[in-house]
Structures are given as structure tokens and as C-alpha cells.
Design a protein that fits this description.
Layout (H helix, E strand, L loop, with lengths): L11 E2 L3 E10 L4 E10 L11 H19 L5 E6 L2 E2 L2
């Protein structure tokens, strides 16, 4: 996954973390969902974007949640993090 556009839109911020909206496409049921996700500031790069490993970890958590709720085989695609394209 590569950040294609630039800085994220931060919804909320604390001393140690930022809250951003993550958008996910559920391809097999043609539906887009969004979730608010906290990212530790220590895992943001100099431009304020999350490092790839933390995105992968949060992605696994979101995927597990969505598969538990909607079933397996959804064709889940991460489309954006904080308004920034990740596809």
C-alpha cells in the first residue's frame, strides 16, 4: 500500500495519537463503509502519514471485524485513510 496524495485529514488529535476516517470498499456487495481509526503519532512519518507496517496492522484488524460482521469472501479493498488514497 502506498500513500498516493499527501497529508491525512485528522478528525481528532491527542498528545499521542490522531483519529482519521478509513474508507473500505466491500467489492462483492458493492458497498463502501468507513471506520474511525486511531494511529499513534510515533508511527507517522515526517509528512504526518502512517508508516506502512501500522497501516497493515490496522488493516488486518478492520478486515477481521468486517469479515466477522458481513461474512468471508467480501473482496475487501482499502480505499483511503484520512481522505488520502491508498489504492
Amino acid at each position: 500500500m502506498v500513500n498516493k496524495e499527501g497529508n491525512m485529514e485528522i478528525k481528532r488529535e491527542t498528545e499521542k495519537a490522531v483519529l482519521v476516517t478509513v474508507k473500505i470498499e466491500l467489492c462483492n456487495i458493492e458497498r463502501e463503509v468507513s471506520r474511525d481509526v486511531w494511529f499513534p503519532k510515533s508511527q507517522l512519518d515526517k509528512d504526518g502519514n502512517p508508516n506502512e507496517w501500522i497501516v497493515a496492522r490496522k488493516w488486518e484488524e478492520l478486515r477481521d471485524e468486517l469479515e466477522a460482521r458481513h461474512g468471508y469472501g467480501l473482496g475487501i479493498l482499502l480505499t483511503s485513510i484520512g481522505g488520502v488514497s491508498w489504492i
